[in-house]
DNA sequence: ACATTAAGTGATT
DNA sequence: AATCACTTAATGT
């Protein structure tokens, strides 16, 4: 079956045959289009999504509704923040928006505990996604705390470029400003500077990373 | 041709 | 680095 293959390719760590079978049995395949909200803040999370295709952007929001980009989750991964919520079906503290058309397996949260006891592969999987995401989070934190806007923008763009495997990024200055919680003018000015330095080529609604 | 939206700029805090 | 007010340029209808 094609699904099984996708699962094995994207999640080699879950290779235990019995576990694969169970995942296939209880997991529901879902598809979501770009910009759809996979998980919203304060939403009760009762399913764990295992991304098979596409990618998702994880955002944090403050009391005033300002959003800040945290990190991307791509295929073969799941979000640790979601995982935490999923463990006992708590409310999400982040928002997950589909960045690239996503296909994922939705696992009801009841199985989290059961599989933790039953399968070593599952435990390893959970632990490793925790540590991967923890590092991502630390990266995000010191970006926010210590880096200046120009570095944050440069970083944001290179992450994005890596994610979509393209140097051509279709995004407006406004959208970048929104993701990094700054103003459009600042983004425009920094981008202009980067262009002078030969780092990017800007055109309306899209930009290209140069080397 | 006109309206709409993206991007550029200077001044101010 | 943020905000404002305004201009200029690109794009859609």
Description:
- The chain has 211 residues and is an alpha+beta fold.
- It has 2 domains: 2-144, Jelly Rolls; 147-209, Winged helix-like DNA-binding domain superfamily/Winged helix DNA-binding domain (Arc Repressor Mutant, subunit A).
- Helices cover 47% and strands 26% of the residues.
- The protein contains 8 helices and 8 strands; from the N terminus they run H-H-E-E-E-E-H-E-H-H-H-E-H-H-E-E.
- The protein has helices spanning 2-10, 17-26, 80-87, 110-118, 120-146, 149-164, 173-180, 184-196, and strands spanning 28-32, 37-39, 47-61, 67-74, 95-108, 168-169, 200-203, 206-209.
- Strands 1, 2, 3, 4 and 5 form a 5-stranded antiparallel sheet that branches. Strands 6-8-7 form a 3-stranded antiparallel sheet.
- Helix 7 (173-180) crosses helix 8 (184-196).
- It is elongated and about 55 Å long.
- The chain starts with a helix and ends with a strand.
- 27% of the residues are buried.
- The model has no long low-confidence stretch (mean pLDDT 89).
- The structure holds a DNA duplex (13 and 13 nucleotides).
């Amino acid at each position: 079956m094609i699904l099984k293959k996708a699962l094995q390719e994207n999640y080699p760590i879950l290779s235990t045959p019995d576990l694969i079978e169970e995942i296939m049995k209880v997991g529901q395949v879902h598809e979501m289009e770009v910009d759809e909200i996979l998980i919203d803040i304060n939403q009760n999370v009762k399913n764990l999504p295992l991304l098979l295709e596409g990618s998702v952007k994880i955002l944090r929001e403050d009391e005033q509704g300002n959003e800040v980009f945290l990190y991307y989750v791509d295929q073969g991964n799941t979000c640790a923040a979601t995982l935490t919520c999923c463990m006992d079906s708590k409310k999400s503290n982040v928002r997950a928006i589909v960045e690239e058309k996503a296909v994922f397996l939705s696992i009801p949260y009841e199985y989290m505990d059961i599989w933790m006891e039953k399968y070593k592969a599952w435990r390893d999987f959970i632990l490793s996604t925790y540590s991967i995401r923890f590092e991502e989070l630390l990266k995000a934190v010191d970006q926010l705390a210590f880096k200046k806007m120009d570095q944050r923008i440069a970083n944001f763009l290179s992450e994005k470029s890596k994610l979509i495997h393209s140097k051509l990024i279709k995004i407006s200055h406004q959208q970048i400003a929104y993701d990094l919680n700054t103003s459009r003018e600042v983004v425009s000015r920094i981008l202009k500077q980067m262009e002078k330095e030969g780092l990017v080529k800007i055109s309306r609604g899209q930009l290209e990373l140069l080397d």
